[in-house]
Amino acid sequence: MNRAGRVSTGEAESEDAREIKRESAACQFIFVFSVVFPVPINNRIAKWDPEDLPNDWRELRRRWDKLHYVRIVLLLSALACLIWGTVKH
Fold first, then answer.
1. How far apart are CA 80 and CA 28, in angstroms?
2. Between the N and C ends of the chain, which has fewer C-beta atoms within 10 Å?
3. How confident is the model at residue 17 (pLDDT cuts 50, 70, 90)?
4. Under 8 Å CB-to-CB from 33, ≥6 apart: which residues?
């Protein structure tokens, strides 16, 4: 059976398996990207004293904004693929 619960040929099952692997790899990439790039910045910011910000706080904010934008684009792309895969089946 494929993800839609239908019995399919071996070739279609193989394509479904490849599709699931691609989707899984994309989700894993997004998770690793989030943990490696924005999260360390979040952790650093959490330790700041609002009355005594570091000199490079604006640069760090710009960097976080860019990384967050990339993360959002990746997440929306993954959501679009999920919707497409659901509608396609």
1. 16
2. N
3. confident
4. 70, 71, 74
For residue 6, what is the enclosing H or E element? none
- Rounded to whole angstroms, what are the CA distances from 86 to 2, 11, 25, 39, 75? 12, 19, 18, 31, 16
Exposure b/e, 2-11, CB count within 10 A at least 16 = b: beeeeeeeee
Domain ranges for the chain: 26-88
User: Residue 48's CB: how many other CB atoms inside 10 A?
Assistant: 12
d(C-alpha 11, C-alpha 2), whole Å: 11
Name the more confident of 3 and 87. Answer: 87
Contact 1, 7 (CB under 8 A): yes
Q: Which residue has the higher pLDDT, 15 or 8?
A: 15
